Amino acid sequence: MSRIIFVPQHPTPMRYSEWWTWKFPEEFKKADFEVITIGKEYSDMMQCRRGMLSAFSPTHAAIEFECAQIDEYMNLDLRSDDTLFLADLSFPGFFSNVLYHKRPKYAYAFCHATSMNDYDYFQRVRHSKIQVEKAHGLMFNKVFVGSYYHQGKLDFIDIPTEVVGVPAPPKNIIKPVKTEKNNFLISVARPSIQKTDADIELHVEQQYLEMIYRPDCRTWEDYCKALSESQVLLVTAREETFGYQVVDAIINNCIPVVPDAFSYPELVPKEYRYNNITELFDILDDIKAGKLTVPKLLCEARINNFYDNIIKIMRKERDSYPF
Prior knowledge:
The chain is of the alpha/beta class. Helices cover 37% and strands 13% of the residues. It has two domains: 177 residues, Glycogen Phosphorylase B (Rossmann fold); 116 residues, Rossmann fold. α1 links the parallel β1 and β2.
């Protein structure tokens, strides 16, 4: 049986990094891989010492975790049939020179975002971060990305990339609840220039004489309840690599209304996407009139087969996704 060396991101509650830490190893084990998760014990110890974290990982905690991962990996005896899988290319816990000096024959990584995105968090150091992403990418047999839009933004000319979407959140994380629709509009985006357009949101609130609900969610249960209680998830992002919140909204019976740009055309049909404020009002009016209901996710098959297809690619049973 071959072995997968899995390198997760620092797990932060209320973000995908929390459940990717244990969900990927769980799926790998189902496929009869032996799995070594780099940094798991250290992560558990950090959570006990610091308490639960929220939003993004504090800088000192993330760096401390990544240094511990490097130390653990450098003391690991590699086998000839080992496969390395990094859960995040941009924040892998490994510097490029570490992988250069100690790299198994097979290595794969998932790239969640890219510094090529406008309004990226690391925009001020974009040039250097892009070079780091490329340096990491050259160490891998293939880099997985979430959307064709994302693939097009990357400048990985010499690095094979494969569009694999993202996995649906585990059922014990996202637990849909049936409840009354108490809110017409909800936004669960981070209040940043990349994720929200304040001008559009103000026009919407003035048009419908209703404030957009912006919940302060402390748990996944709070998050699901907030989405389930709302009729429409309003997305006004200026840039998006994939759009996990759209998946979350549909699971929780909430209608996503999104810009007709970025990765969104890969997620929802045209009638849920807008190019300007007039089109946005038309969509919202149709929803109020009952003409539009919760759509099916366009990439549903990719999400449902996410782990299975990645495993088949790593086992050389398939060259790419059958989509």
